[in-house]
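Provenance

Sequences were taken from public entries as deposited. Structures were produced by running a predictor on each sequence independently, with no templates supplied. The record for Amino acid permease from Microvirga alba is shown for reference.
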Amino acid sequence: MSVGRGSTGAQASAGAQGAAGITYTKVDDSYFEARRLKRYARVWSLWALGVGAVVSGHYSGWNLGLAQGYGSMLFATIIIATMYLGLTFSLAEMSPALPHTGGAYSFARTAMGPWAGYITGIAENIEFVLTPAVIVFFISSYLSAIFGTAPEFQPVYWVLSYALFVGLNIVGVELSFKVTVTVTVMALAVLVAFYLSVLFSGQLDFSRWALNIGADGAELPKGGGPFLPFGIKGIFMTMPFAVWLFLAIEQLPLAAEESHDPQNDMPKGIIAGIMTLIVSAFLVTFLNTSIAPGAAGLAKSGEPLLDGFRTIFGSDIAKILAAIAVIGLIASFHTIIFAFGRQIYSLSRAGYFPRFLSITHGSRKTPHVALIAGAVIGLVVMLIIWFAVGAEAGANVIGGTLLNMAVAGAMLAYFMQGMSYITLKKKFPHINRPYKSPFGNAGAVVCMIIAAITLYFQFTDPVFQVGVLGVAVYYAVMMAYFLIWGRHKLILSPEEEFALTKGESEYKSH
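Predicted structure for Amino acid permease:
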């Protein structure tokens, strides 16, 4: 696929943008020729891409929120699920109307201009680069359980995992999507097997295990504790961890230029994906917590699903169970690597990031430079935290810090996407919308409010303030880059041309 070079109207609009401090650089056909993508995905692939990106959050990560008690986890999950319904249905309307690889950046750029587009793009960049880092941390926890390796060995697992799955994404989009579908179905099958095992094990005891945290935070040996041991505040403190049950399904619009029919398939894939995840989210939070070691034990665990399997089947087959459980983490790790590759590619192709990052592989047409760059950044952040806190630090410190950094980026991106939806409805009522959200502006507003509240409570948690402040520092650096350099080097990519012509000029494919 190649894109349009820019119409006369677009060039004129580009010149007008100079008054706002934005300058476009003309490029020839060879620029886009070196940045081609291939169309492959259909509904089934898109569903797998969305669910696969999230499913690891049902294996590890969410459980850290149980430190505030099961009741806090339940209500936080309800609130966050509501936020994601508002977000995903808004995306289901916007993505086929603006079917570009830019996704969230593209929506904000069209609705509110290049600065808003860049701010949104950076937020999503933080989310998609750091989310695989969280997942690979939990992968290393599972692999350590399988092979009995010391904590100091974990960075080796990180490097090997990145090398393998970045390589798979570079090999080709066909293989990437085939692997995505396969591992996503396998990951869901493992979860279903776990749910059925708990239900028929005879060990489910909600009061004994799910309510084993007292009002002082101590573990209650016989359970029967308060439903909300820390009151209403505990719900808000748990919300960032409930996000992990749904985080990254919003990556689906990034596959728009690799979808055969984004106008019809994208809404179906997004809606089917969020419904699948909502059902699984409520099952895992209830069933995993209602057996030993219960809420108190799982709140400190790096492999909660494995802990549940051990309870049911015993420790003798723990290594086999760990190998099975790691499938879900692999599914998300693989699919979000796809996401950060496309996200970096789209911002680079438009000139917001250095242009060399958007060059695609000569024969395979995959954004190999962006994929490698995203992996390197994620690894560097992990190693900085690892060396800062020490190899012996548990999941609460390393995994929790990375998780909160990723969630902070996501919350800002969600707020901006909700605003983009509302602004697009007002300023661009004429663009073709193959699908319309049944929740309309109300769904977008609810999404924005919940995202803002979640981000606020992340700042109030002293354990994770350093991580969230790290996100703020990265933002400051990237905004300085755009102010000094990037805003003078923009390119009329499909996203930019669509925005400058107010949706009247579509990119061409052949």
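The CA atoms of residues 93 and 435 lie 5 Å apart.
The domain at 8-500 is CATH 1.20.1740.10 (Amino acid/polyamine transporter I).
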